[in-house]
Amino acid sequence: MGIKKAGVLGATGSVGQRFILLLAEHPDFEIHALGASSRSAGKAYEQAVTWKQTDLLPEVAKKITVSECKPEGAFAECDIVFSGLDADYAGEIEKDFVNAGLAVVSNAKNYRRSPDVPLVVPIVNPEHLSVIEKKISDAKTAGEKKPGFIICISNCSTAGLVAPLKPLVDAYGPIDLLTTTTLQAISGAGFSPGVSGIDVLDNIVPYISGEEEKMEWETKKILGNFNKEGSEFVPLSDDEMKVSAQCNRVAVSDGHTECISLRFANRPAPSVEQVKQTLRDYVCEATKLGCHSSPKQTIHVLEEADRPQPRLDRNRDAGYGVSVGRIREDPVLDFKMVVLSHNTIIGAAGSGILIAEILKAKNII
Amino acid sequence: MGIKKAGVLGATGSVGQRFILLLAEHPDFEIHALGASSRSAGKAYEQAVTWKQTDLLPEVAKKITVSECKPEGAFAECDIVFSGLDADYAGEIEKDFVNAGLAVVSNAKNYRRSPDVPLVVPIVNPEHLSVIEKKISDAKTAGEKKPGFIICISNCSTAGLVAPLKPLVDAYGPIDLLTTTTLQAISGAGFSPGVSGIDVLDNIVPYISGEEEKMEWETKKILGNFNKEGSEFVPLSDDEMKVSAQCNRVAVSDGHTECISLRFANRPAPSVEQVKQTLRDYVCEATKLGCHSSPKQTIHVLEEADRPQPRLDRNRDAGYGVSVGRIREDPVLDFKMVVLSHNTIIGAAGSGILIAEILKAKNII
Amino acid sequence: MGIKKAGVLGATGSVGQRFILLLAEHPDFEIHALGASSRSAGKAYEQAVTWKQTDLLPEVAKKITVSECKPEGAFAECDIVFSGLDADYAGEIEKDFVNAGLAVVSNAKNYRRSPDVPLVVPIVNPEHLSVIEKKISDAKTAGEKKPGFIICISNCSTAGLVAPLKPLVDAYGPIDLLTTTTLQAISGAGFSPGVSGIDVLDNIVPYISGEEEKMEWETKKILGNFNKEGSEFVPLSDDEMKVSAQCNRVAVSDGHTECISLRFANRPAPSVEQVKQTLRDYVCEATKLGCHSSPKQTIHVLEEADRPQPRLDRNRDAGYGVSVGRIREDPVLDFKMVVLSHNTIIGAAGSGILIAEILKAKNII
Amino acid sequence: MGIKKAGVLGATGSVGQRFILLLAEHPDFEIHALGASSRSAGKAYEQAVTWKQTDLLPEVAKKITVSECKPEGAFAECDIVFSGLDADYAGEIEKDFVNAGLAVVSNAKNYRRSPDVPLVVPIVNPEHLSVIEKKISDAKTAGEKKPGFIICISNCSTAGLVAPLKPLVDAYGPIDLLTTTTLQAISGAGFSPGVSGIDVLDNIVPYISGEEEKMEWETKKILGNFNKEGSEFVPLSDDEMKVSAQCNRVAVSDGHTECISLRFANRPAPSVEQVKQTLRDYVCEATKLGCHSSPKQTIHVLEEADRPQPRLDRNRDAGYGVSVGRIREDPVLDFKMVVLSHNTIIGAAGSGILIAEILKAKNII
User: Fold this and answer.
1) Are A185 and A313 in contact (CB under 8 A)?
2) Are strands C149-153 and B299-302 parallel, antiparallel or unpaired?
3) H or E element in which residue A278 lies
4) Which alpha helices (H) appear in chain D, and where do they start and end?
């Protein structure tokens, strides 16, 4: 057990900086390797980074010498590697790390659709990690050394969406129709250059490249099934679930708001009060496992007419809890509601950390 | 014919100020009476008002002495009276004006549901004015003097919503399912106090009191039918059309963005290209009548992936045109698209002016 | 010693809510009385308040029954009473509390100019509390019971301004010319209604009623002197120090930015490096006394060209530290620099709490 | 006379787009050549540009084939060339154009400090164009062909600053001390990427690279003198005028607000009322010449306590007028006031157009 050695790929970027913040005072992990481009490699981290977080650059990270993103040297000794790499680089580098036998938790989109890669929102579907457990146990049985693996963090807007869906599906059966219109924060777009100021000042951009497709597809994998062998994922089919997303960028720093609407396949549908109670009662597995970052309350059901609001509610349970409000009947589908989640915590780096906590709790790392 | 005398009720308020701006250089109307609370009555308008428009207070309005909101004095001589009154006052005052034989176009919500009051978006359903024409002609037949009447402007978010629906229903038959999630500007809420700064800075408020009910109901009246006699309106039933609205307040000054999704009752549904062409081809009646403020292009179909945007597109055709973008198939209903309309022009005062232009063109006033 | 009983006047308002948040987990104080208008009195606090903080309403405050703002009942037992009252009510009520022998720390402006009332920024001039100590000791000598007293928190923008001035004056003698142009956050204006959204969206309001006069005057009291007896304050004269403030309201939630420029009376002026070092070395008395909320680093001297920035730097030392950047020579006066302070912490409620901590550390309460 | 042929360098950029908008319906000019990078050259303008203006791309520009930025082909026939080039390219290209005998009005900073290049704010110092007139007349005398020349548009924040200074200096003699703290809009920074959204959302950036130096220096050239021969400019010395600027980037789309303070060299200083009257009475030369874009009222003196505000006042006289408010005595210098100017009109492209109108009116082109 003890403290696990953690590496961060893409350490100078927006997601990498957040991994470092979350790791800096973490009881389970210590920062052991920081990887960035060859331009940064060799420098002390504090020299290499343009730090743009509201929390100060942690002392513990300042003097670490930045490495190149290769599965050697400091990274070779890591129990877990968090990847905040851009998709342009993640594909190649993460593959190298897995091939070198390393455990990678990635925020990049590259391997999310791979049939044997778990796409995990840690407060929703940690049971998908069983595919990794099986892979490790199969290798052991075969007398091979422990294999490397990759686990993908979902898209930020998907994380908020599926959080309330999971307990509802568990309680009332499949959701066959689902619509979501998002009002997404700008922090998710990073900061070099990120979203242009002129695009979000007195404005809305009703489009985020690739986002709608990601939400529509990822939801079906996260709420989906395994193959018979338990070695691959079988997303829900369009017949089982139709998902429609409309994504907007708005002038909010952190916190994705989603106006969702859903229909259950089974009749009669539950009552509004049943839906609320099911959400209130939901305790995610990470919380049951006692994971350090797991939310006390997984889903906060708000009763005030005008909540959740990003500025007021995004930091519930340090950003690991999801807020759901305005749960009411929908004239078109069954129910509509407003879901708020912290896009850089449960929607990105924070999910990565919580996944690693679960991996440790389950002795996978 | 000639120039019509216009009065404005609630002249010092947000909507009243916009009526005045639009009337000041209007070729069809002259400002003849300005009404406000007894606190303002007797003062020159420039003394009574806290002017908060980006255009300067028109010279022509500055010296007009503000009256009380009574159907006497200057108002008695008006051919048309525009009401920007708060709902708290509009009910009583507007009734008095109608009873005094005056023609009232109101932005208040009080009489929108009255069966014999037209609820008109002038680029959508000016044919609803026939109820007024019938009322006048009936009075004439009966040897009575010309009756007063009231016409209601729709809610701001309803106006944008129904604009593209009308030509689609005309072309492809009824829409039976409709969802809209709005991202609404703050100017619609007036400015004393209006929306609080702290509520829209780095924030979304996912609730606007009464707004969803208004949108769901008004849409069915505007797209609805007449009774046999042509004297009353018969809104669509829930069986004919289900509408679901989710309303959000966002940090935009002017321009309501709506992410809508719809299903036609008839199969097969038209193609995306047909939908676009129908919207492009639509010419509203006001434009055919040559009304001064009518849009050259009623509906602007935008092909860029990230449009319409409020800051860039809200002023098309001086705010009388509606922009529609991202028209595409919807996995849940038939089509989804983004609709942008100027909430204080086509969504409020501007619609009032254009209604009056139609009334004049049809010799109703 | 032990835990002191604290009361909060104006408990449902913006400043009152922040007092409650800061008191809820404070080791030195417990919330004993909450006062609000007669409309709220008698209700449980959670019923009476519209809570609008980003932190949740503390459990410890929820069930407290709100009292009227009278120096009786629960308030009579308080060791310290924090006032977040509006100026309209503060004058009368605070006087009653003092007359009843209570210790009041007030955020209202009413008594700031009273010659015997300390106007205290706790990281700047806690020595002004000696006037209270003298008052108490005089009463004791005279055999009278311990008198009530009031201490005023400075205006929010004054607090940030004087923080760097104090150590500079101590080190290099009087500052005779001082200009400040402020870019002030909206949270200071409260929220009912507070600053209107339309006023700060894509806009600046270059005026805050009464603010410039307050800054110009308060600075001279805070940096000023005592009379011979040590019983009253003698602000600096215009001959000793001229202060010019220009105040702007901007679209920032928390954190006042000030661009200041100053000239020392003595020649030669210190060097830029001396100024920086003096600010870095400054340790406020509250920190020396070990007060719970006192900043580890009173003044943070930032070297990055584009700092301090409100979003990134306002929370240094939980809002009790002040950030100063861009210290450089000024072509007109001696030096210019940018000062950032948290307007609701060191600029309001937080200062009140820290003043009370100092009072306790000095056995004044 | 007649209509002059105009070229635009950097035509796809932010400034270039505004030149095109202003030229499209201009009675004095027609767009004859559009220059951009070799990547764009050869394409129709509507294909080459990512249009991001609130007004639609003018029909007249859509089909123009974009050229490379060389003083040949279409550009060789231009009577006037407007340059919106980035400073990285402007130096070389503009020199080539001048050497080819072309008249260039540039928004780039490269030649602003050249002693023989006029730095012109057209509502302030068009008399500086005499240096060009002399150059042309000298060439004529020498029997040489008409020489090319360049005129520089000032920095956007300088333009607003000097507008009220000029009439005051003319009336009351030199200003020897001047401070300005700016709150600058983001449109000036262009849009690829321009100012990052995360930098201006709930934030201020108290720094704009190079801006303060530009303001401090340009002011002294614009208000400065000529050498004896009238062939070169002699900026004011530090002894004659000290200028101190502090520049901030804020969440405003268009419109720079400046809080300025100034002292006259002569005693006694004028009264506040005299200052106001002088500003009100100022009629710039362009207006006297009847130039198409010249403001009806050069300087708008606002009496409301809380004005000017960018959203409400930036469009006075189509952005060619400057608004000045809060004129009052300053405890440190003589007067303080708030100046608002439209940074992309009088502060950039608009000034270029108005300079060209003056050139035409004076038969320089």
Assistant:
1) no
2) unpaired
3) helix A272-281
4) 14-24, 45-48, 59-62, 73-76, 87-99, 130-141, 156-172, 197-200, 211-222, 272-281, 285-288, 310-313, 349-361
CA distance B178 to C336: 59
Question: B181-185, B251-255, D98-102, D189-193 — which is least confidently predicted?
Answer: D189-193
> DSSP letters of D258-279?
EEEEEEESSSSPPPHHHHHHHH
What span, in angstroms and rounded, lies between the C-alpha atoms of B180 and B241?
A: 14
Q: Are the C-beta atoms of A112 and A152 separated by less than 8 Å?
A: yes
Instruction: Record the tokens describing residue D115, joined without a space.
Output: 């002693």
Q: Is the pLDDT of residue A190 over 90?
A: no
Phi-psi region of A362 (alpha: psi -120 to 50; beta: other; left: phi over 0): alpha
- Interface touch A259/B206, C-beta < 8 Å: yes
Reported as type and span, the H/E element at residue A217 is helix A211-222
Q: What is the pLDDT of residue A1?
A: 61
Q: What is the pLDDT of residues A249-283, one digit of tens each?
A: 999 999 999 999 999 999 999 999 999 999 999 99
Question: With an 8 Å Cβ cutoff, are A195 and D191 in contact?
Answer: no
Residue B314 Cα, gap to closest chain C Cα (Å): 16
Tell me whether residue A36 is exposed, middle or buried, using C-beta atoms within 10 angstroms of its C-beta: 0 to 12, 13 to 18, 19 or more: buried
Of D204, D325, D336, the CB nearest to C244: D336
Whether D233 contacts D224, CB under 8 Å: yes
Q: With CA atoms as reference, report the closest residue to D67 among D97, D102, D43, D98.
A: D43
3-state helix, strand, coil in chain C (%, to 5): 35, 25, 45
Amino acid at B325: G
Local structure of residue B350 (DSSP, 8 states): H
Cα separations in angstroms, D206 against B161, C204, C309, D245: 42, 15, 7, 11
Mean pLDDT for C183-187 is 96
Question: DSSP code of D236?
Answer: P
pLDDT digits (tens, 9 = 90+) for B194-224: 899 999 999 999 999 999 999 999 999 999 9
Which element (helix H / strand E) includes A132? helix A130-141
Rounded distance between C-alpha atoms, residue C115 and residue B254, angstroms: 50
Are residues A352 and A286 in contact, defined by beta-carbon separation less than 8 angstroms?
no
Q: A298: distance to nearest CA of chain D, Å?
A: 28
User: What are the two backbone dihedrals, phi and then psi, of residue C184, each rounded to the nearest 5 degrees?
Assistant: -100, 140
Written as six digits, the tokens of A300 are 């906060």
List all residues of chain A from 165 to 184 with a beta carbon under 8 Å from chain B: 177-179, 181, 183
Tens of pLDDT, residues D21-57: 999 999 999 999 999 999 999 999 999 999 989 899 9
Residue D329: enclosing H or E segment and its boundaries? Answer: strand D322-329
Q: Show the domains of chain B with their CATH numbers.
A: 4-155+349-361 (3.40.50.720), 156-341 (3.30.360.10)
* B19-44: pLDDT as tens digits: 999 999 999 999 999 999 999 999 99
CA distance D91 to D69: 12
| Annotated catalytic residue C256 | yes
Q: Say whether pLDDT at D13 is over 70.
A: yes
Alpha helices by DSSP H, listed for chain B, are 14-24, 45-48, 59-62, 73-76, 87-99, 130-141, 156-172, 197-200, 211-222, 272-281, 285-288, 310-313, 349-361
| Complex confidence, ipTM | 0.95
Q: Give the distance between the most distant pair of CA atoms in chain B.
A: 63
CB contact under 8 A, B338 and A246: yes
User: Any CB–CB contact under 8 A between A50 and chain D?
Assistant: no
CB pairs under 8 A, 24+ apart, for B68-72?
B68/B35, B68/B36, B68/B37, B68/B38, B68/B41, B69/B9, B69/B10, B69/B35, B69/B36, B69/B37, B69/B93, B70/B35, B70/B96, B71/B96, B71/B97, B71/B99, B71/B100, B71/B102, B72/B100
Contact D79, D72 (CB under 8 A): no
Q: Which two tokens stand for residue B164?
A: 């593209």
Cα separation, A49 vs A10, whole angstroms: 11
